[in-house]
Amino acid sequence: MSDQPITDLSEPRLASSWSAATGSWLPAVILLLVTIVLWEAAVRIFAISAFIIPAPSEIAKSLAAQWGTLMQATLVTAGEILFGFLVSVVVGIAIALVIVRFDWLGRALYPLVVLFQNVPKVALAPIFILWFGYGLAPKIGLILVIAFFPVTLSMLAGMQSVDRSLLALMNSVGASPTQILFRIRVPHSLPNLMAGTKIAATLSVIGAIVGEFAGASDGLGYVIQFASTQLDTALVFAALLLVSVLGIAFYYAAEILERIVVPWAPKFSQS
Amino acid sequence: MRIETIRAAGDRPAHIRHDDLISAKGISVVIARQLILQNIDLSVPKGSFVSLIGPSGCGKSTLLKVLAGLVQPTQGSVSIAGLAPVEAARKRMIGLVFQDANLLPWKNAVDNASMLLGIADKSLSRSDLRARGQEMLELVGLGDSAHKRPNELSGGMRQRVAIARALALDPAVLLMDEPFGALDAITRDSMGQSLLEIWQRTGKTIVLVTHSIDEAIHLSRHVHVLGIKPGRITESLDIALPYPRDLSVTEDPEFVRLVVQLRTMLRSSHQPGGAS
């Protein structure tokens, strides 16, 4: 066997990208399908009441029956998430820039930001309702207080991890603090910032739903709360499903944004 | 020891002393109550190639930072063509190269090469900077990699861009802190050879911090040996091998003799307090 001439000198192929993709997705999809089938079977076999645990088929039926209402609610919630997320990112970046650029202000601000992080922000929801009413504003406020922190923290970490000899190079030619900030620190922080942004995207979904729980007349959070008071558990699950889809959509949107903004950043998937 | 440091400065005949581009007198540096450098006298003639060699912790990098104006000496003074190092740096007279290339990962090679120049001289247009960057990349042998980002370049190529970035300032002196320290032996040799060629083509003064005996002798005209605890110049060695030198110089009997001599000097420099 060993004296056979080697004819194939091409690279040993680990897996094509397509089969690698299906290879990584397939187990999860199979598990999901098996869970759904077992769920359906268990509900039928043990005759579990639909308002305790509805069967997947019941959820699908409810989804179809209430499609119009649910889509309208999804749109409202998606709008809140998007708006709140954008405000969080802008405010988060602004706070990080102020902390880095103005030393004394940073020293005043940073401990307060960390301190504020320990306030249970979900508990702020009723206060925001009291201040801003039942409209969009309290949801944006709640998303902001929940989601700005990972943005600020990740950007700070990125801006402060610039190599000292690079700063020495910049200083040696007389670069101003503002030049160092915008030419070096900010672009250097972008990979970190994008990681923080992905966390903020996930937290924005939570913020919107919590805001709607606390007081709303529309949106998926409102549908969940209303349906549960009606014991329409199938509708609760249908709305939950849509919340999850929204969450995944926002996460991947942030990830696509990351690939556009920081194409040079190391990718975790290339391990 | 004082006698030796004087000898270090006095190696050259007195009549060319005014040609010294860099002259450091009585440099002492104390950091966190530790005496890092003690009473160092160093002169670097214009256009020469000087290496500082010594064991880890001898303060050779700190000495380079003092010359660059990045560390203020506790005592003593440095003059670069009559200017304090910080002023000299502002006038683009100092080009710095560190062990890590420290390129900006979001910029390509040509923009990295012209980055410091763009900060130093705000009057230059984008196309001026590009042209200058390209010219410098060609000088370091990377003319056709101008549009590659650092992550597409090898370690040696990244260090070439770092050298191009320093040269783009058109500095009087190139201060290099173990620039090839992170490279493999083969790349190291070819980088050293390239540096010699760049030195001869541009006529820059070069001060190189290294811990490689071969590198110091292969490249430089003068080698200063630093001892530890505290850091000080214990001995100085003139390398009389003629330029241009290529790698075959390493087989020259004189080269081998110098390696042995420098190794002996380094061994005695390892003794704290300097009983050389």
From TrEMBL, chain A:
UniProt keyword annotations, A-Z: Cell membrane, Membrane, Transmembrane, Transmembrane helix, Transport
Main location class: membrane
InterPro entries, per the entry: MetI-like, MetI-like_sf
UniProt similarity note: Belongs to the binding-protein-dependent transport system permease family.
Domain of life: Bacteria
PANTHER family, alphabetized: ABC TRANSPORTER PERMEASE PROTEIN HI_0355-RELATED, ALKANE SULFONATE ABC TRANSPORTER-RELATED, MEMBRANE SUBUNIT
Protein name (Swiss-Prot/TrEMBL): NitT/TauT family transport system permease protein
Transmembrane segments annotated in the record for this chain: 20-39, 81-100, 112-134, 140-159, 193-214, 234-254
GO CC term, one of those recorded: plasma membrane
GO biological process: transmembrane transport
Source organism (scientific name): Rhizobium loti
Subcellular location as annotated: Cell membrane
A Pfam family: BPD_transp_1
Topological type in the membrane: Multi-pass membrane protein
Domain ABC transmembrane type-1: 70-254
From TrEMBL, chain B:
Residue ranges occupied by any ABC transporter domain in the UniProt entry: 16-255
Keywords associated with the record: ATP-binding, Nucleotide-binding, Transport
Pfam families the record matches: ABC_tran
InterPro entries, per database record: AAA+_ATPase (IPR003593), ABC_transporter-like_ATP-bd (IPR003439), ABC_transporter-like_CS (IPR017871), ABC_transporter_ATP-bind (IPR050166), P-loop_NTPase (IPR027417)
Domain of life: Bacteria
Keyword Secreted: no
Record CDD domains: ABC_NrtD_SsuB_transporters
GO function terms (MF aspect): ATP binding; ATP hydrolysis activity
PROSITE patterns, A to Z: ABC_TRANSPORTER_1 (PS00211), ABC_TRANSPORTER_2 (PS50893)
Family in the record: Belongs to the ABC transporter superfamily.
Protein name: NitT/TauT family transport system ATP-binding protein
Organism per entry: Rhizobium loti
